[in-house]
Amino acid sequence: MWTKLKSLAQDAETRKITELFEDPGRAEAFSTSFDQTLFDFSKTNIDAATLAALLELAENAGVATKRDAMFSGAKINETEGRAVLHTALRNLDGAPVAVDGEDVMPGVLKTLDRMSDFAGQVRDGSFRGQGGAITDVVNIGIGGSDLGPVMAYKALAPYADGPRVHYVSNVDGADIADTLRGLNPETTLVIVASKTFTTIETMTNARTARAWMSEKVSDPAAQFAALSTDQEKTGAFGIDPARVFGFEDWVGGRYSVWGPIGLSLMIGIGSDAFRAFLRGGQAMDRHFKEAEFAENMPVLLALVGIWHNQVLGHATRAVLPYDNRLVRLPAYLQQLEMESNGKSVAIDGSDLGHNSGPVVWGEPGTNGQHAFYQLIHQGTRVIPCEFLVAAEGHEPELAHHHQLLVANCLAQSEALMRGRTLDEAREKVAGKFEGDEMERQARHRVFPGNRPSTTLIYPQLTPEILGQIVALYEHRVFVEGVILDINSYDQWGVELGKELATALGPIVAGEESAESKDGSTRQLVEYVLKHRG
Ligand code: F6P
Asked: Is 308 one of the annotated active-site residues of the chain?
């Protein structure tokens, strides 16, 4: 099938996306909708034959069987011997899901209720700090224990009616210092979010927060909560089990926002809105399980990704939300996609034999337009773009802003596809320049066009819609992983750096010699030792 797709790619090189629109039914045929969300991939160079081949690729890869295995609790994370069941966290009707023969749902729903109770108490002031009701919550976590909640908290700002929530992730002391400055320790709740409760950045920040709090609060541990799979370690840190919200190893860090790791979000927006977020995710799960592949949004999003990255060889994809509150979505998707599918070994340990997942990057529009879109439009490399936009904002009094936002989003995908020919460019400069100079000036104004993009459009960024979007991308990663024969649920590639950082700690502290290190590392250590105060 890869060979067939490569030959279809050669055909695609000879045609323009605009020509595909000679078919008046193209927009509808190369789009799919779920609930009220529409995914339009018609502005790509995928024609009917290519789509059929891509769908066959998904069928042949066993996506349906592996999807069912994932939902049923099979241990598809083979290198770690774990099930992959973040979907159970949003399985709100509690239909049984078994791991090792045991239904995990009673435990999931019980923890969700405990989270709701605690979040309710923090929000209504019945859980108090030494100085009274909680005004600020600081979530300390990194990677999946930070990016999911912070992305969603920012996305759902219009629903945030609880205490202010802040996020600290970086071990750079600047992060926690800037966050804690101005907060009152007597009315602050610190949530330590770490699946393993060993991550050096998180534990360092947690200890710093405890020291900060103990300067003013007689029992700082009473204003700490923990989110982790390891209750022994949370106990050793001194956090009362009543404020420990546990989860199991079948929830991967980057898939964990739906459970206890989402506690800060729940405190910020309330249990009802948080459950609406879960309902959105659950609805997307149902769609993913039930819809035919030809109408299945995660499958189609994945196939567009495979076409662009593995078949056409475009190494990156830009995620461009025309929704300012999705400012952290690109960062969130960087972890979700790159930590999941950035691997060069197939599940059986052999070499992958094709490109791993792409580099994912982006920024909200319209800001990106005034920064890096130049390269997207006229650079020598093709960057497939994924636009996201809501029909309506949350500021009815600023509807004219939203209209401008939408117009810009649509204009970008149109411009990328249409481009501007040399003749059109000549018309632009005619009368301003003459002869060779006119020609030279015109050439600078040519847009190659024929650049692919997709658009995900939804009514409004509500908790439910956000849940749909996040689950959509999770399943996209799953489908791409299956097609690429990658285990999307381990992350061995983060280990080496962690080991070396541990070894370098005493060297950078000046306690051990850098002798065993390479010349560059020795030089950098020397520089640090010489220049710090
Ligand atoms: O270093 C990678 C990683 O393990 C991520 O997969 C994870 O989301 C992050 O670190 C944080 O891990 P933890 O929640 O255990 O602190």
From this structure: no
Say whether both 123 and 40 belong to one domain. no
Q: Is the CB of 259 under 6 A from ligand 1?
A: no
Judge if the beta carbon of residue 195 lies within 6 A of ligand 1. Answer: yes
Q: CA-to-CA distance for 319 and 374, rounded, in angstroms?
A: 16
Pick from 386, 121, 133, 156: nearest CA to 257: 156
Residues 154, 92 share a domain: yes
Is there a catalytic annotation at residue 195? Answer: no
Which residue has its alpha carbon closest to ligand 1 atom 6? 253
Cα 284 to Cα 36, 70, 298, 473, distances in angstroms:
12, 15, 9, 10
**Considering 22, 292, 370, 400, which one is annotated as catalytic?**
370
pTM tops 0.95, yes or no? yes
In contact, 39 and 300? CB cutoff 8 Å = yes
Tell me the two tokens of residue 128: 């108090």
Query: 337, 339, 464, 480: which is the annotated catalytic residue?
Result: 339
Res 150: pLDDT: 98
Residue type for position 452: P
Range of the domain at 54: 2-10+28-60+291-370+381-394+452-487
Q: 503 Cβ partners below 8 Å, 6+ apart?
A: none
Predicted pLDDT of residue 1? 85
Q: How far, in Å, is the centroid of ligand 1 from the Cα of 306?
A: 27
Known active-site residue 498: yes
Query: pLDDT tens across 63-102, in order?
Result: 999 999 999 999 999 999 999 999 999 999 989 999 999 9
Q: Would you tell me how many other CB atoms lie within 10 Å of the CB of residue 517?
A: 16
Average pLDDT over residues 223-245: 96
Asked whether the predicted pLDDT for residue 533 surpasses 80, the reply is no
| Residues 115 and 187 both lie in one domain | yes
CATH at 296: 3.40.50.10490
| Residue 87 near residue 478 (C-beta atoms within 8 A) | no
Whether the upstream peptide bond of residue 196 has omega within 30° of 0, thus cis, is no
Q: Which atom of ligand 1 has the smallest separation from the CA of 253? A: 8
Query: What pLDDT was estimated at residue 416?
Result: 98
Specify the ligand 1 atom closest to the Cα of 144. Answer: 8
Domain assignment present for residue 267? The answer is yes
d(CA 414, ligand 1 centre) in Å: 39
* Ligand 1 pocket member 196 (CB < 6 A): yes
253 CB less than 6 Å from ligand 1? Answer: yes
| Span between the terminal Cα atoms of the chain, in Å | 61
Q: Report the domain count for the chain.
A: 3
Q: What is the pLDDT of residues 308-337, one digit of tens each?
A: 999 999 999 999 999 999 999 999 999 999
CA distances from 64 to 35, 61, 197, 296, 365 (A): 21, 9, 35, 11, 35
**418 close to 449: Cβ distance less than 8 angstroms:** yes
Query: Are 472 and 508 members of one domain?
Result: no
Q: Is the CB of 139 under 6 A from ligand 1?
A: no
